[in-house]
Each structure stands twice: as structure tokens, then as C-alpha cells.
């Protein structure tokens, strides 16, 4: 396949995935913007709450990412039965995990206080998390169905469903955060109810499409759904756990950065949350391309075609790098404008938050380039079902390099929030280098000749 055809195929598959990832991120952006209008303390609590929630969510989401790689390889090998088995047991695992994690959300205030957060901010974050915790199971099940549909290259519908969820989230936010239309003024609790509603809508709509869409009905995805398939259950669990731990290793670095920023100050924490939100929006483009890389790599791996795998990997990595360079320019030149979008101009703390936000975005411009390399490598490695070694690479990069470097630069060298962000750069650079090296030197690209 010529390189141009690879680019077109990735673009056709990846553009709706990018759009749906951006729309999914808009759910969090909407919460951040509206709660930011509500108050600085509420915004700081939301930053802590969302960091806490997504640290747990990312562990469970390893199931969905494992399903994407397995279903893509099964379809590449023309095995629709295995694709169905893996998807159904992925949903089972997601529901079980979501229920098991509920106590961590209910008692989150005590956990956050133990981690050094101010009692009043921790209490607000707990109010948020006690509601949002019930969104974990439907959210993870939704991600499994999303992975199944992505592997089937049915990505356009994901964009439209997620956009509908964004509109629902914004409307419920407007009503419940501020108490409009006679509703109670719930602040961060209103934002949590809105996010829960959006995730349930997303799950129901995707499940209906997966079951009834033309060309997919013959797979009978939910037929006798209650019956266990223990072989597929344990295969998906064993592959999903390293994937989830890899995500947690990276996410915990950002969670630790939020906690450490909370030690520095509330204004700095609010600016940190805004800068992370902005960089996360652009990062969704790379996540969408990474998901497309998983699907394309999985199909090529299922067909046992190393040349198709290599050429597709070159195309998708080049596309991601091109967008990353564009992002650097935006962060450098539009930092003040981007930061002010999240704040009330009349708030007296706004100028100081903008000052810190601009500094953090300047560093984010650097780490975006390293972040895209690690996420693209992970997407390709998941496509060839290599998950265990990348997990250890992530643990070493983020826990042994990124987090200690952030603490050392921020507190020992007294560089504050900017030093903390440079520690993130070092962790991401290590992960990107090791994971890219592993993919390009792997046996999936260099198969040994068959013995005579």
C-alpha cells in the first residue's frame, strides 16, 4: 500500500476518533469553565476531583484499550466470534471494576486530606466524587463498546453520540451549578450530576448502535450477555491490567503534580488545572491517532503483514508529529488568551492565575512533543498486543524519573510550579524514547525466516 493510501486510511479512521476524543474532552472543559465562573475554591476542588476520578478511570480503561487491540487483530484474522467474546467480557470486567471502586469515591475526602490537601477543598472534592463515582461503571462499559466500534472502523457515530452528550452536560451544568430555572444551586455537585448523565447517555446510545447497526447485527454482541466466558474473561483481564497500569503510571504523575501544586497554593493549583486542560485538549488529537494506530496495527498484525504494519506506523507517527509542532506555536503565542477563557474577568484572582497559566503552557509546549511520542508508541504496541514491557517502562519513567524530578525542581531547587512542570517533561521524554525504541526493534517488524 502506498504511503498516501496509508495516510488517507488513517485520516478516514482517525478523524472521527479525534473529533469524538475532543468532544469527550469538552465534557471536562465545560465543567472546568462553568465551575471556574462559579468560584476559585470550587475550581480547585474540581481539579482535585477530576484528577482523582481519572486516576481510577484510567486503570479500568486498560480493559477497553486491550479490547481494541484484540478485536482489531481478530477482525484482521477474520474471526468475528473471538471479537464478540472479547468485547462482552470486557464489558463484564468494566462493570465489576466500577462497582468495586465505589468505596474509594465515597471516602475520597479523607484520602485527599491524608495527601496534604486543605480540608475545605478536600470536602468540596468529596461532594463531587460521591456522585461522579457512580459514573465509573457506565463510563468504562461505554469505552469498551467504543473500542469495539473503533476496531470495526465505525467511528463517525462515536463523534455524533459524544457531541450529544456534550450538549446534555452543558445544559445540566447550567441548570444545576448556578441554580437556574428554579433548580437548587449545587456548585460542584451539579457538575458531577451533569457528567454522570452524559456518560449514561453515551453508553446507551453506543450500545444500541453496536447491537442494531447494519453490518453488525449478525455478530449478536449482546445475545446471552449474562453467560460468562471465562477463557475470554481472563485473556482480556491479563492484557488489560498492564495497559491500565501503564495509563495509571502516567496519570499518577499528573495526579502527583496536582497534589504538589496544591501544596504551593490555591491560585497555582487553579492555573495548573487550566494549563492541563488546554494541553489535554490538543493531546486528544494524538490519542485519536493512537487509537487509529492500534486498529491499523492490529489489523496488520492479525494478517501477519510486517510491511503493512511498518508503513502504517510511519504514516501515523508523522501525522502526529506534524500536529505537535503546530501545537507548540499555539501554546507559545496564545497562552494568555487560552488561560483567560477559563476565568471570570471580574474575579480579583484572575490576573495572577493568568500569569501562572502562561508560564505553565510555555513548558507544556515542550512536553507535548514527548507526550505524543509515548502515546503513539503505546498505540502501536497495543496493536501488536505487547503490553507488559511497556508497563514497566512507564513505571520507571513516571515514578522513578518524572515524579521525583518534579519534586526536586519545585521544592529542593525552589523553582515552584514551573520546575514541577519541567519534571513532567523529563518523565515523558524517558517514556517516549524507550517505547518508540521497543516498537521499531520488535519481532513484529523483523520476523525470523522460517526454518528450512
UniProtKB/TrEMBL annotation:
The record lists the membrane-crossing segments as: 7-27, 42-68, 89-108, 128-145, 157-179, 191-211, 232-249, 269-292, 313-333, 391-412, 418-436
Q: What is its main location?
A: membrane
What is the recorded membrane topology of this protein?
A: Multi-pass membrane protein
Cell compartment(s), UniProt: Cell inner membrane
List the coiled-coil residues: none
Q: Which UniProt keywords apply?
A: Antiport, Cell membrane, Ion transport, Membrane, Transmembrane, Transmembrane helix, Transport
Descriptive protein name: Multidrug-efflux transporter
Give the species this sequence originates from: Thioclava nitratireducens
The lineage, from the top, is: Bacteria, Pseudomonadati, Pseudomonadota, Alphaproteobacteria, Rhodobacterales
Amino acid at each position: 500500500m502506498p504511503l498516501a493510501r496509508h495516510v488517507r486510511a488513517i485520516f478516514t479512521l482517525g478523524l472521527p476518533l479525534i473529533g469524538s476524543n475532543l468532544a469527550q474532552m469538552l465534557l471536562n472543559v465545560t465543567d472546568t469553565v462553568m465551575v471556574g465562573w462559579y468560584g476559585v475554591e470550587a475550581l480547585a476542588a474540581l481539579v482535585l476531583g477530576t484528577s482523582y476520578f481519572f486516576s481510577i478511570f484510567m486503570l479500568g480503561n486498560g480493559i477497553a484499550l486491550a479490547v481494541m487491540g484484540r478485536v482489531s487483530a481478530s477482525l484482521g484474522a477474520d474471526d468475528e466470534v473471538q471479537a464478540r467474546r472479547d468485547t462482552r467480557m470486557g464489558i463484564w470486567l468494566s462493570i465489576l471494576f466500577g462497582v468495586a471502586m465505589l468505596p474509594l469515591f465515597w471516602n475520597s475526602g479523607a484520602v485527599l486530606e491524608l495527601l496534604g490537601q486543605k480540608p475545605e477543598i478536600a470536602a468540596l472534592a468529596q461532594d463531587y466524587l460521591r456522585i461522579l463515582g457512580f459514573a465509573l461503571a457506565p463510563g468504562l462499559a461505554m469505552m469498551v463498546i467504543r473500542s469495539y466500534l473503533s476496531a470495526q472502523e465505525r467511528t463517525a457515530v462515536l463523534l455524533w453520540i459524544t457531541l450529544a452528550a456534550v450538549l446534555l452536560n452543558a445544559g445540566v451544568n447550567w441548570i444545576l451549578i448556578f441554580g437556574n430555572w428554579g433548580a437548587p444551586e449545587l456548585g460542584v455537585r451539579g457538575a458531577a450530576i451533569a457528567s454522570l448523565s452524559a456518560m449514561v447517555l453515551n453508553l446507551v446510545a453506543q450500545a444500541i448502535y453496536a447491537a442494531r447497526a447494519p453490518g453488525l447485527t449478525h455478530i449478536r454482541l449482546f445475545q446471552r450477555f449474562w453467560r460468562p466466558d471465562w477463557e475470554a474473561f481472563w485473556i482480556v483481564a491479563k492484557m488489560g491490567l498492564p495497559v491500565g497500569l501503564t495509563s495509571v503510571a502516567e496519570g499518577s504523575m499528573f495526579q502527583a503534580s496536582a497534589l504538589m501544586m496544591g501544596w504551593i497554593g490555591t491560585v497555582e493549583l487553579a492555573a495548573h488545572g487550566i494549563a492541563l486542560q488546554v494541553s489535554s485538549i490538543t493531546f486528544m488529537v494524538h490519542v485519536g491517532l493512537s487509537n487509529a494506530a492500534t486498529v491499523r496495527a492490529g489489523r496488520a498484525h492479525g494478517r501477519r503483514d510486517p510491511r503493512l504494519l511498518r508503513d502504517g506506523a510511519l504514516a501515523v507517527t508523522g501525522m502526529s508529529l506534524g500536529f505537535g509542532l503546530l501545537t507548540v506555536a499555539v501554546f507559545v503565542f496564545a497562552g494568555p488568551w487560552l488561560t483567560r477563557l477559563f476565568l471570570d474577568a471580574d474575579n480579583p484572582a484572575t490576573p495572577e492565575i493568568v500569569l501562572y497559566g502562561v508560564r505553565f503552557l510555555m513548558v507544556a509546549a515542550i512536553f507535548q512533543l514527548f507526550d505524543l511520542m509515548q502515546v503513539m508508541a503505546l498505540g502501536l504496541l497495543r496493536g501488536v498486543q505487547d503490553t507488559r514491557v511497556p508497563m514497566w517502562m512507564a513505571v520507571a519513567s513516571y515514578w522513578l524519573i518524572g515524579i521525583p524530578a518534579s519534586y526536586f525542581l519545585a521544592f529542593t531547587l525552589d523553582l515552584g510550579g514551573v520546575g514541577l512542570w519541567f519534571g513532567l517533561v523529563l518523565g515523558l521524554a524517558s517514556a517516549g524514547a524507550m517505547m518508540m525504541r521497543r516498537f521499531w526493534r520488535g519481532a513484529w517488524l523483523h520476523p525470523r525466516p522460517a526454518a528450512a
